[in-house]
Amino acid sequence: MHPPHPDSEAALENATIDLFSQLQWQTANCYHETFGTNSTLGRETKGEVVLIPKLQSALQNLNRDLSTETIQLAIEELTRDRNTLSLANANAEIYQLLKDGVKVSFKNNEGEDEAETVKVIDWNHPENNNFFLASQFWVTGEIYTRRTDLIGFVNGLPLIFIELKAHHQRLELAYKNNLTDYKQTIPQLFWYNAFIILSNGTKSRISSLTAKWEHFAEWKKINSEGEEGIISLDTIIRGTCEPTKLLDLVENFIFFYSAKGSLVKIIAKNHQYLGVNQAVTAVTEIKSNQGRLGVFWHTQGSGKSYSMVFFSQKVVRKFYGNWTFVIITDREDLDEQIYKNFAYAGAVTEIEKNVRAKSGEHLKQLLHEDHRYIFTMIQKFRTEKGGIYPQLSDRSDIIVIADEAHRSQYDTFALNMRNALANAAFIGFTGTPLMLGEQETKKTFGDYISIYNFRESIEDSATVPLYYENRIPELQLTNDALNENMAEIIESATLDEEEEKKLERQCAREYQLITRNDRLEKIAQDIVTHLLGRGYQGKAMIVSIDRFTAVKMYNKVQHYWQEHLQQFKNQLAQFNLSEFEQKKLSVTIKYME
Predict the structure, then answer these.
(1) Helix (H, G, I), strand (E, B) or coil at 56
(2) Which of 82, 90, 402, 584 is the most interior residue, by most CB within 10 Å?
(3) What is the reported pLDDT for 497?
(4) What is the pLDDT of residue 484?
(5) Distance between CA atoms of 36 and 34, rounded to whole angstroms?
(6) How far is CA 539 from CA 38, 125, 255, 552, in A?
(7) pLDDT in the model for residue 344
């Protein structure tokens, strides 16, 4: 047989199989697989997606003290028909069996009811599991038969689905033409799926079975040292399918988010996986770092609250202790939002009023009780002037997670938090970098443990890029390199105390010029004109120098907005407009109203 063309999908598949072999996976081409008696993989029909011989062998190896009957009951539970469930619900049900084991009940030799938990995967020792990659794997659904590119089995269960395309084909087609069809025609394959990889070699994406195409993300780094593969497929396979990394990703970086009646499967993105593992490493060094676990700086929009869930859940699962996490914010709306995120993710099972501190006294009560999670605001650590906050707990298995940890409130109440929880560990999550002068933040939380900055977020399409347009230069400010300069400022964001004071003095000196009424009038006019003429409908955000100016700007923008609205209504009332012009004006008026 002639080797495939180097640019073909077959060549990419062969290279991927070789890579899995290097990662110590067993591999086999299953195009000519036989079924029934003496079958190649032990499948009776193409409709079966679990490799029973491999599953049975693994369960016997992982549960040597359990009877053959018990093992068989576990296999029956894992392989039973789940067609009555939605795809997401079936997947969530099996995922819990993988993580926590299969609980089976049976009658012992004395005729009494007995229960055992059958371990399905050894999460701590990869070498105790079986890793098998099948290429050209046939699966038959209720009507149709499909041939998949690559399926990764762990202990006989199909956890990884990989769809490949030739490098000249659009990667999105792997999602639209193949994955979407497979989920409809052979859904039983995805009951067991942990994650999905789509690749044409040069571009690769990973996500879950419930994800839309736009939520499939790149995996740019193999490890926290920034190591990359030769091509993107090499990076994503080495970063997610190497046995140790695979088991870690599946066990600790997946959860199901339930909100508004739907179930969504969340899998960590590359920066979350690497960042959280660095934070977990800090927990292993909790004595040497004196409870200062560090600052987790991941830019706005990068999923910080999900990272908090991954972090806390992994600590609970991998470290001995009755851990309590105190999640602190400085705003009521953030406190409520983070509680809901933890609740929708299934991390918090207690009702809101039982774990959200209503007052300082309620916070003290919650800390004396036994809760896995407590949600509060930093202001609850307030004391009377000159007072010393009392110690609430001397436990060493409390971790304080502070959201937006560098804000001034944390400096103000840092000592009170330390007094209240003398032996607790502290980790700060923030979407913006620390300034050089924020030494109190570092004293409380420590230095950076993970950085995913604005530039990286834009490159990953997690954040939309910012563009700067210098409009209405009333203060005679000109700078041809403004875009580049602003990007550098956002990237570095470092001012020492002297520079900060200088900036404050300069702003104070120019305050009257900046807030001059005629200048604000022109800005308000320009905002309305720009918003209506930018070519698309959408929201806008206006940032003012202080809240008083913000109120002024709101009133002025409202005035010019209504002025334009009336002008459009007057134009619509004219009889000499074409049908197209009338329709366009009607749409604009509806948008403005």
Answers:
(1) helix
(2) 402
(3) 63
(4) 59
(5) 7
(6) 64, 51, 32, 19
(7) 93
Q: What is the pLDDT of residue 462?
A: 63
**pLDDT the model gives residue 307:** 94
pLDDT computed for residue 534 by the predictor:
73
- Please choose, from the candidates 216, 215, 238, the residue with its C-alpha nearest in 3D space to the C-alpha of residue 227: 238
3-state SS assignment for residue 149? strand
**Residue 501 CA from chain centroid, whole number:** 38
The residue type at 504:
E
What is the pLDDT at residue 56? Answer: 97
- Nearest-angstrom CA–CA distance, 440 and 424: 17
At 215-253, the pLDDT tens digits run 999 999 988 777 777 788 999 999 999 999 999 999 999
0.70 cut: is pTM over it?
yes
Q: What is the per-residue DSSP string for 188-215? A: GGGGS--EEEEE-SS-EEEE-TT--GGG
Q: Are 198 and 211 in contact (CB under 8 A)?
A: no
Mean pLDDT, residues 324-341 taken together? 90
Q: In the structure, what pLDDT confidence band is assigned to residue 145 with cuts at 50, 70 and 90?
A: very high
User: What are the CA-CA distances from residue 290 to residues 285, 320, 422, 423, 440 (Å)?
Assistant: 8, 18, 11, 9, 15
Q: Is the pLDDT of residue 551 over 80?
A: yes
Only one residue has tokens 């490493």, namely 281
Query: CA angle, 319 as apex, 411 and 304 as ends, to 5°?
Result: 45
d(CA 160, CA 387): 57
Spatial contact of 420 and 390, defined as CB atoms under 8 Å apart: yes
- Enumerate the β-bridge partners of residue 448: 295
β-pairing, 324-329 vs 398-403, is parallel
With beta carbons less than 8 A apart as the criterion, state whether 46 and 141 touch. no
CB neighbours of 251 closer than 8 A, spacing ≥ 6?
A: 99, 121, 123, 317
**Would residue 460 be called left, alpha or beta, if left means φ above 0 and alpha means ψ between -120 and 50 degrees?**
alpha
Higher pLDDT, 537 or 129: 129
584: its two tokens: 């366009």
CA distance 66 to 104: 11
Predicted pLDDT at 407: 62
Do the beta carbons of residue 98 and residue 39 sit within 8 Å?
no
Pick 210 or 569 by higher pLDDT.
210
- Spatial separation of the C-alpha atoms in residues 160 and 149, rounded to whole Å: 11
> Tokens 């495939």 identify what position?
4
Pair 103, 76: CB distance under 8 Å = no
**β partners of residue 265:** 256
- The number of beta carbons lying within 10 Å of the beta carbon of residue 28 is 15
Residue whose pair of structure tokens reads 């491999």 in the numeric block: 54
Determine how β-strand 262-267 pairs with β-strand 324-329: unpaired
Could you tell me if 118 and 68 are in contact, meaning their C-beta atoms sit under 8 angstroms apart?
no
Instruction: Identify any residues that bridge with 579 across adjacent strands, giving them in sequence order.
Output: none
Which strand ranges, in their side-by-side order, compose the sheet holding 195-199? Answer: 26-29, 131-140, 145-154, 157-164, 195-199, 204-207
Instruction: Give the torsion through C-alpha atoms of 313, 256, 236, 25, to 10 deg.
Output: 80
